[in-house]
Description:
The chain is an alpha/beta fold. The protein has three domains: 32-338, 3-Layer(aba) Sandwich (Rossmann fold); 367-543, Rossmann fold (3-Layer(aba) Sandwich), CATH 3.40.50.970; 559-687, Rossmann fold, CATH 3.40.50.920. 38% of the residues lie in helices and 14% in strands. The strands form six sheets. The chain has a seven-stranded mixed sheet with strand order 12-11-13-14-16-15-21, sandwiched between helices. Strands 3-4-5-9-8 form a five-stranded parallel sheet, sandwiched between helices. The chain has a five-stranded mixed sheet with strand order 18-20-19-22-23, with helices on both faces. Strand 22, helix 22 and strand 23 form a beta-alpha-beta unit. Mean pLDDT is 90; it is low at 1-16.
Amino acid sequence: MPSPHHTAPLHLFPIPSRDPPQDLVNSTGTTIPIASQRLALLRAMELSRAVEERLRSLYRQGSVVGGVYLGIGQEALSAAATLARQPGDIYAPLIRDSAGRLAAGEAIEDVFRCYLGRRTGHMRGRDGNVHRGDLEAGVLPMVSHLGAMLAVVSGGLLARRLRGEPETAVGIASLGDGGMATGAAHEALNAAAVLRLPLVLVVANNGWSYSTPNEQSFACADLVDRAAGYGVAGHRCDGTDPDDCLQTLERAISAARAGGGVQLVVAKLLRCSGHGEHDDARYIPEAMRAAYADPVEVARQRLCDEGLIDSAGLTALQAELGAAVDAALAVVEAEPEADPAQEDWAVRSGRSAPGPTRPTLSAPAPTSYGKAISLALAHSLAEQPELFIYGQDVGGDFGGAFKITKGLAEAFPGRVINAPISEDAIAGIGIGAGLHGAHAVLEYQFADFSTIAFNQLVNQAGTTFWRTGRTCPLTVRLPCGGTPGAGPFHSQMPEAWFSHHPGLMVVAPGTVADAYGMLRQALRRLDPVIYCEHKLLYERLRDETFDPAAEQIPLERAVIRRPGRDCTLVAWSAMLHDALAAAGLLAEREGLEVEVLDLRCLRPLDLDAVVASVSRTGRLVVASEDFPFSGIAAELCAQVAEAAFTWLDAPPRRISAADVPVPYHPALWAATRPGPQSIAAAVRQTVSF
C-alpha cells in the first residue's frame, strides 16, 4: 500500500491561526509563563538553525571531520524536549538533536570542536560530531546503534532509585521512527515499563528510516499506538508546530516526574535534508516536502502575529546569534586538532573503588566453585551499597538458572532484580547505572546469549572510558563452557569474542579461590569486567581449605599452578584441570616436568608471566576449550613467538576444541574437547621436536 505521505500534498497537521497557548503548570505546581517559554523555544531553534547552516557550509568546504547530520525541520521537537528539563534530568539526544543540545546549555564552541576534531572538545578527537555529550551536565554521548541509548538512560534512573533518591528527575531519550524498529528499543522500552521508570521517549517520525519509508518499517497506523502494548502512556503531537511540541512535551515530562511511569511521545515532522549531507534525499517526493511547514518559520510568524516579538526584534535576534556563531567558530578554528603525540591511548581507567576485598567472614567446608561465586556476591553486596544484581530469574526464590543468586534477594531487598528476557536492555541498563554511580552485576543464563548484548557491551561499555574519560563500572557474569548434553547454544567459550575489543577486562577463574577472589576484585573495578564462570565446575570443583580471607592474587596476574622445566603449558578455566592432569601423567609415565600456568585473566594478557616461563622451559603449549581459529590460544602463541622467539626450542603449539559447533550428545562432546590424553600428546610432540 503506498504511503499517504506520497499521495496527499496536504499538511498532515494543518497549522491553524490559533489562540495563544495558556501558561503551563508543571508537576510541582509551578506556573511556567508560556510567553517566556515560547520565546526561549524560538531562540533555541534560531540558534540551532544558524549553527547547522554554518556546519553545512563547513562540510562543503571540506573542513569537517566525518559527516554532518542536520536537524533542520525538527528543531521544535528537539528543543521543546529539553526546555522542559530540570537540573538532574538525564538527556540522551540523537543525531538530529542540535536544537535540544543547545537548549540544554551546550556551548556553541563545543559543537564546532566535535565536528572539527579539536583536542579541546568533549571527545578530544576520539569520537565526534553527533556523538558528543557532557555527562556532567546530564547529556549522554550517543552511539551509532539506534535504540541503544534508551536502556542507558533507564539504567541511570534505576541507579538513582536504588540510592533512595526522590524520583523527581526524569530521563528524556530521543529516537526516530527507524530506531523504533530495533530490538534494542523494544527491549529497553519494555524493561523501563516493567520497572515503572520516569522515562520519556521522544520519537521523531520524519517518514524515513534513511531511505526506507514508514510503510516498509512498521505496519501500525501510528507509532504512538504501540504505547498500549507496552502499558505506557502515549502522546502525539505535530512536530512542525512549536506550541504543540512545547505543551505536549511539558505534559509528558510532568506526568513522568509525578510518578506516571514511561511516557511515549510521537511527533510527525519532516527531515528537510538527507540522512546526512552526503545524502541528496531524492527519494523524498516533492509533494511530501510541500506538505510540511518549517517549524522555525511557524514560530517566527506566530510570535510576530501575537506581538511577542516584532520584525526588528527578530532581525536583531538573528544577528546576535549569527555573531555568536561566528565568534565561536573563530575560537575553535584557532584551537589545536587531535594529535597522536598528545594521546595517552588508555582504554581502561585501571582503577578500583576503595574498600576491603578480604572479609573476616568464614566459608563452609568444602566450598564449591558455584558457592564461592555466591559468597563473593553476598559479601560484596554487604560491603558495597552501590552494587545490585540484574538479570533473568535472579530474584525471588528461584535464584538464577544455576542457583548462584538463591537467597540474595531476601538478604538484600530491592537489590536483586528480575529482568525480562532482554539481553540488550539488561546490558544497557547496567551501563547506564554505572555511569550514574551504581555498579550492576549482570547475569546471563548462558554465555551464548550474551551475543544479543554484544552492541551494548562492546560499543558502549568498552568505549566509554576511551570516548569520555568517565569510568563505567560493570560486572557481567557469563556461565560458559561445555557440559554433557548442553549442545551448541549453551556451551560456548566467549572469551575471544570480548577480548578482541579494547576497553573490556575478561577473566576466567579456574579454582574455587579464584572464583571468589577474582569476582570480589571485579566488583571493585571501575572498568567493565567480563567474568567467565565455567558451568562444569559449579558443583564438581570443591576446595576443602578455601578461606575467603586469604590474600588474593591481583586480577591481571597469571599464576604458576605446577612448576616445571621441560615445557610451559598454559590453560585457564576448566581446562586448567585437564592441563594439570596431563602434566601429572607426563611426570608419572615419562618423567617430564611440565610447568602449568593458569592464565586467569585473558584481557589484558599477563604476557610477562608467560614469557618468563617460556624463557625457563624453551617450549609453549596452550590448551583451550574454545574453537581454534582466532582464539586466545592463537593470540598467545603469536605474541610469544614475537616476544620470546630466541628462547623457543620448538614452535608454539595450541590444542583447542574441534572446529565445529559444540555437539549435544555427551560422547560427541567429549570427542571434540581436549582432555588430559590429547593435551599430554601435544606436550610430548613439542618436547620431542
